[in-house]
Amino acid sequence: MLDSERNQTVPAGSAGNVLELIGNTPLLEIRRLTRGLLRPGVRIFAKLEGFNPGGSVKDRPARKMLEVGLKTGDLRAGKTIIDSTSGNTGIALAMVGAVLGYPVELVMAANVSRERKKIIEAFGARPIYSDPMKSSDGAIEKCREIIAANPDRYFKPDQYNNEANSLAHFETTGPEIWRQTAGQVTHFIAGIGTSGTVMGAGRFLKSKNRNLQVIAVEPDDELHGLEGLKHMATAIVPGIYHEAQLDLKLPIGTEEAYEMVYALGQSEGVLVGQSSGAAMIAALKIARDLREGCIVAIFPDFGDKYLSTNLWIGWQEWRRERLAQVLSKWNASTNATT
After folding, report:
1. How many domains are there within the chain?
2. Please, what is the Cα angle at 158 between 23 and 190, to 5 degrees?
3. Do 66 and 42 lie in a common domain?
4. Catalytic hit among 64, 275, 276, 305
5. Which residue, 3, 60, 332, 296, is CA-closest to 177?
6. pTM for this one?
7. 58 assigned to active site
């Protein structure tokens, strides 16, 4: 900001920079897709994190980790921000780095979506690609090699092991959900990538209601297509992940998550990524056994970053008839448990 602008009055409702726009994302009640599937006392809400300025839930921890780095002095003039990422955290770090004036380098699997690669470059960050067959774990390993070769050059937020990641969600995501549901939330659902969202927001919500259920979502197989999520039994486990704090962990299949993405687009008019589809499947699995409850599922981003990926191969063959079949299946499952 120019010195001449510092003392000017800021219009009401405006922001001094884009980082002030992170958070306070809306809840969307899922009604059309769930019509006839839920008992009268059960509601499902999606927290639409795609409304963050960087387009995902990862804006929250990216801002927090760099704020902490600046406060401790680990991030300072002359340093380059570097981290491994499946894409969304990379976009968030690139955005925040641009605002703060720091160069950013990001290590990611070569098969992350074309859209994510372009967005990262548009923010001025330098992408470095790792073995696509090793997914996010390969990016972690390559990032370690780069830092080891020149340790004084880099500041690594280390999203998988930095407690500021989960703290961001404890301080923002959790309180927002509690406020938006007027304290009525009974089940909280989020996918496991770094695990920061489910750990941090879950911890806050448990502090408000110890009976609230914290539910994590993971792929059901090591060789999955749910970009951004980890199959914990076969992955490098994040240091901030504490499974004992979960009430339940649900495995979700790639195909059913993809189909749910299509269903959400054609029934609710919301286009999301595959991890959101997985979260919605988990919400339905939880809801069918409830007589009353308020379920909040994190939808980490919108679907525009995935239009060139396998998520959309074959989607044109997926018609409303298929949506009717999917909902009929869920309705049969619900009736069977009534």
Report:
1. 2
2. 45
3. no
4. 275
5. 296
6. 0.88
7. yes
